[in-house]
Write a structure and sequence with these properties.
By secondary structure, the chain is an alpha+beta fold. The chain is built from five helices and six strands. It has one domain. Strands 1-4-5-6 form a four-stranded antiparallel beta sheet, covered by helices on one side. The protein is extended and about 80 Å long. The relative contact order is 0.16.
Length: about 180
């Protein structure tokens, strides 16, 4: 036999859930998004991606000097922290563009068994950066029969700070068996 009190209580709670609280149910939407890095595509910055890369290697900007001093005190290799092209790379890309354009630079490599996309950048994962923000995209990879090595970095054109970056190593099939031993 069912308890009429519990059935009534359940029905009443369900009704409150459906009706909702009018204070909370009136959500206002705003078309304006406050990005940490707002759009700046109209701003004219004459520095090319190659000039920026050289300035990055020379620690020309204060943000990079501070970064270098911090990592130098910890006795770490700066080349592994700030972007550097592979010396024997298959491809080196240095491009200045808008943040939403970096999705176009995916490279597909095949290890004999699986296709990999690198770098698989999804701008939706970077919600603090406006898609119309000017960036430097630096990308270097080496693709051989034995392995794939890649690294990339995305720097803000205006502040010169790194927004995203990473690196990967993929041993190719069947050569990965040697790598595991």
């Amino acid at each position: 036999m069912r308890n009429p009190f519990l059935i009534c209580l359940y029905s009443l709670c369900s009704l409150f859930v459906l009706i909702g609280n009018p204070d909370y149910s009136q959500a206002t939407t705003s078309d304006k998004v406050d990005y940490l890095y707002p759009t700046n595509k109209e701003k004219v910055i004459d520095e090319t991606a190659d000039e920026f890369y050289q300035a990055l290697r020379d620690s020309k900007y204060p943000v990079h000097r501070a970064f270098y001093e911090k990592h130098n005190q910890m006795q770490r290799d700066l080349d592994s922290r700030l972007f550097k092209d592979f010396s024997d790379a298959s491809v080196n890309i240095r491009k200045k563009g808008l943040f939403h354009e970096v999705e176009e630079f995916n490279y597909i490599t095949w290890d004999g068994n699986i296709h990999y996309t690198y770098p698989d950048i999804d701008i939706k994962d970077h919600q603090a950066i406006s898609p119309d923000r000017q960036v430097y995209f630096l990308y270097s990879f080496k693709d051989t029969e034995m392995e794939f090595r890649g690294r990339y970095a995305i720097y803000d054109v205006e502040t010169k700070q790194i927004l995203a970056g990473g690196g990967t190593y993929i041993p190719k099939y069947p050569n990965y068996k040697k790598f595991l031993q």
